[in-house]
Design a protein that fits this description.
alpha+beta, 4-stranded mixed sheet, two-stranded antiparallel ribbon, 7 helices
Length: 194
């Protein structure tokens, strides 16, 4: 059974925000191969190290989710349950953390995941040029993956590198800064995607 968080929004909040009507639903997806969602001895040793860093083991949930995402590529329902069981936490608590943070992928991403910042600094310096190039060239919208699974696209609100705009983040890790469309095309060619 997939957990979901249904939050009714029927009233105004604050003095200038109007909340949307209806329900917000956050869901996870199941993996195709649940039997492959296991931590090996090395993973368990890392998790024990995470737990030793904190006064209680529940605080190790974020690095353990990150470990699971790096190992499995994204956080399926099964991997969230594995993290919860490993840390002896309620599944709903771990789901709550995973659904709150955008750095945790709740659906499969491409082998090369590109998050392009389109906030003000990046927008003024060409962020949308790069973002729209990917959209138009590969037929992707925000959050989508190419049919071959090689590339996925995300529009990032802010990557915190305004001084080196425009910026893209690759696979939730390395930044590509001071981007130009030509630099980005060369990067994709080097990766065998363009």
């Amino acid at each position: 059974m997939k957990p979901s968080l249904n939050i009714p929004h029927t009233s105004n909040h604050g003095d200038s925000q109007t909340m949307p009507e209806g329900l917000q639903v956050f869901e996870t997806q199941n993996t195709r191969n649940p039997s492959e969602i296991v931590f090996n001895d090395d993973d368990l040793a890392k998790i024990e190290e995470f737990k030793r860093r904190y006064p209680n083991q529940e605080a190790a949930v974020m690095p353990t989710l990150w470990l699971a995402q790096e190992k499995f590529g994204w956080l399926s329902q099964e991997s969230i349950e594995l993290v919860a069981d490993t840390l002896n936490m309620p599944h709903a608590d771990v789901f709550g953390v995973a659904s709150f943070y955008t750095m945790y992928f709740k659906k499969p991403k491409g082998k090369l995941h590109v998050a392009v910042c389109t906030n003000i600094s990046c927008q003024l310096c060409g962020g949308y040029e790069i973002y729209n190039f990917i959209r138009q060239t590969f037929g992707l919208e925000n959050g989508e993956v190419t049919g071959d699974g090689k590339l996925s696209l995300e529009e990032a609100e802010c990557l915190g590198s305004c001084g080196t705009a425009p910026v893209a983040q690759i696979n939730n890790g390395d930044y590509m800064e001071n981007l130009t469309l030509e630099k980005f095309k060369a990067f994709l060619k080097d990766k065998g995607i363009l």
